[in-house]
Amino acid sequence: AAGFSLLILRGILPDFFTVIVANILILTSPNLYYIAVSRFTGQAYSKRFIIVIIALTAGLLSIFLYFNNNVGTRIIIVSIGGALSTLMIIFTAWKSRHVSYRFSMGLAVIPFCVYSLFLIARALFTAFNPPQTIFSNSTAESAAYILLFIISFLWTIGFMLMFSQRLQGDLSELANTDT
């Protein structure tokens, strides 16, 4: 939410905050989900992957803001970074072998699959049809914001289902354990 709030303040705040910081905050969200899913399933997560994605995105955004002001390239950079982060969530969930909450894990991963496919499509669409301004009224940009809004609710519901199913499994196991 903070990243999108900064995007809205474009023209009021310096470009560093409304382009670089805003997009890094937006990109941080799927990386935090990646950490959460990894910890929830008891798997190790790659700090190096997260740092490389965020640092590479910040560096490339800086280049294509200050040295070669190119809105389309910045959209492609953020879309690819988001898609890579989302694919790591999918991969982590796929590696999970917990039968007790595999169904809810599958339901939680569906929005991430849709979102990663959309980000890849957005990058390709932008490569072939680059916008002239950041807030161009294109179908791809409108779809990006609407889809992200809808999918954020689905992510939350999926994660709540996983927690609920895991809690139910843990409580059943405790109830059947003799002390």
Give a brief rundown of this model.
The protein has 179 residues and is an all-alpha fold.
Q: What is the number of strand segments?
A: 0
Integer-rounded radius of gyration = 19 Å
Helix content: over 70%
| Helix/strand order, N-terminal first | HHHHHH
Total of DSSP H or I helical runs spanning 4+ residues = 6
What do the pLDDT scores average to? 86
Structural class: mainly alpha
Ranges where pLDDT stays below 50 over 5 or more residues in a row are none
Using the alpha-carbon principal axes, give the shape: elongated
Beta-strand content: under 5%
Largest sheet: none
What is the end-to-end distance?
Answer: 47 Å
Could you describe the 3D structure shown?
The chain is mainly α. The chain is 80% helix and 0% strand. The protein contains six helices and no strands. Helix 1 packs antiparallel against helix 2, helix 2 (15-41) packs antiparallel against helix 3 (47-67) and helix 5 (102-128) runs antiparallel to helix 6 (139-175). The chain is elongated. 28% of the residues are buried. The model has no long low-confidence stretch (mean pLDDT 86).
Throw out a few tags for this protein:
mainly alpha; elongated; 6 helices; 179 residues
Task: Spell out the blueprint of helices and strands.
Layout lengths: L1 H7 L6 H27 L5 H21 L3 H25 L6 H27 L10 H37 L4
